[in-house]
## 1
Amino acid sequence: MKFGSFTFQPQKPEGFDLHVFRVKIETGIRFQPVHDMVSNVAVFADNVAVKDHPDWISQSPLGPAKIGNPNFNIYWNIVCQTQPEHRAEQLKYIAEVDRQSPGVCLNNQYFADHGHCTCSRCQELWKNSGLSWLEWRRKEVTDYIAQIRENVKKDLILSIQPDPVTSLERYGVDFDDLAKYADAFNVVMFSKNYATPWYFEMLTRNFKKLLKKPFYISLYVYGPGDNPKDVPTPAEILTVSVRCARAGADGFLYLTDGASQMLDYQKAVVADTQLRERLRSYGGKPVQEVLDRVASWEKIVK
Ligand SMILES: [Zn+2]
């Protein structure tokens, strides 16, 4: 089982097997890659691209993929999946980022959501394809991932939404198609609390059954500008880690702004000896691996 950090700052918290740095976030802002941190790139979610090219935004019968459109769970502006200039530029950018890092982790590398995209270019591409709507969308996503794979020489981690059943209908994502190109998946399970770990554990079982490549689960620890009262408690994060581990997760990526918030989390779980003791009874080897990792942090937090 692998344990990774997933940070907005180019910082490497101690006690992890890999470090993922968010070099291009959904706002479209870009940072310099770091040679020993995997680079995370948001591909089509890109506020800067949409600001510079308002006509690139993804369209649907329920309105555009724009922040504030309550028909979708969208917190940024999303470029149409077939926009040729954006595709070409991102392909080049991802290849460059790969050269400068030990690998690439992508997110938003698919359609914005169900019903997207109905811009005039997409309608024409669909009509000319002779395929059904869903098959055409699937082909657009898969073909682009195949092109990315040709350009990424190191590890390629593909993030997916925590939707095991309707990812094809919503995003054009077919897990088997993507498994041909991905070294690993990253199932994003960000939440501001994990008070009911049962849901996350169940989703993990679903993905274990479906995914043909190892998968990480991303868990939310502390984002930029968060109020300490609004983030999951360390006890919740450790408990949900154990429960997802026993359901088959191959690793975890813990999201924080930087190294100091991760250290706060590590200190808190190391100190919670009662919880660590109680979680021992939750399962076999995978549970033990999570608890052993926490034990290994004892020397870091001193
Ligand atoms: Zn379109």
Note: Residues 58, 80, 82, 117, 119, 121-122 surround zinc ion (CB under 6 Å).
## 2
Amino acid sequence: MKNSLIYTLTVLGFGLAGVHADIREDFSSYTVGHDLTTPLDGGMNWSGDWTGTVTATVSDSAELDSGGRYLSYTATGSATTSLTRNMLTTDVDFGENHTFTFDWRPDALDSSFNNTSDRYEFYNEDLSTGENGSFLFGIFGASRGANSTGGVFAAYDRGTDPVETFSGDRYFDLLDGSLQPLTVVAGTTYHITVDVRPGVSEWDLFISDGITTVFRTGMTTWGAGNSEEGFGLNLRGNTGSDTRTASLDSIAIVPEPGTMLLMGIAFCTLVLFRCRKVTFKP
Ligand SMILES: [Ca+2]
Ligand SMILES: [Ca+2]
């Protein structure tokens, strides 16, 4: 009887942990050359297709570190262009702690990347309202404000100010352990990790080129970060001839640590069960 209870708890623990599935995209389900003109709707647990005003094409010609097919996206001109995708709230509870990871590579960073309006940007938001996002960061061709230098990763840290008072001065360069920023280099794959803690409106950002990791932790989310969310990447130039090109791969959005807690319950129950078995040995 007790053993069946332990079994039930174990199954329940692992079962509940499995309720919140990960959201993933590695572009392996598409053929090379597939672009936004035919729905890019693969991956796992997304609620819509990849959409946007950039040109985006699945490629395998210059794999990122993680390998296999990836999405190459590009835009020319001074308008802000975007690549976005909606995520299901039933698969990741965006009111609970969760982590975004993805690989990203800038493929065009020439001398035209020279102005604060020259941008590669990353964010999440409620795509219907453009609000309630949690993270916002980017690379700018020149200083975005008082706390960024340009040409390096900079993250938006709202601090204690209201959401509405957006200011470029709240972009802060990410720094390594020696307080140095990481100059962004074309052709380098960057491994990006975003931890979001909606309960306390905080987020952390870690970016590694495989050798150096720059980061900023304990930032205030730029929005509430608690509604159905879209993952987004923007491109922008400051002149009509500016071309931005980048590659994206190996995206995972994973809930935590609620899942880890449930897994822990299941694991502890199993340990208890095994200990009992040992105790009852003749
Ligand atoms: Ca891939
Ligand atoms: Ca420019």
Note: The domain at 22-261 is CATH 2.60.120.560 (Jelly Rolls).
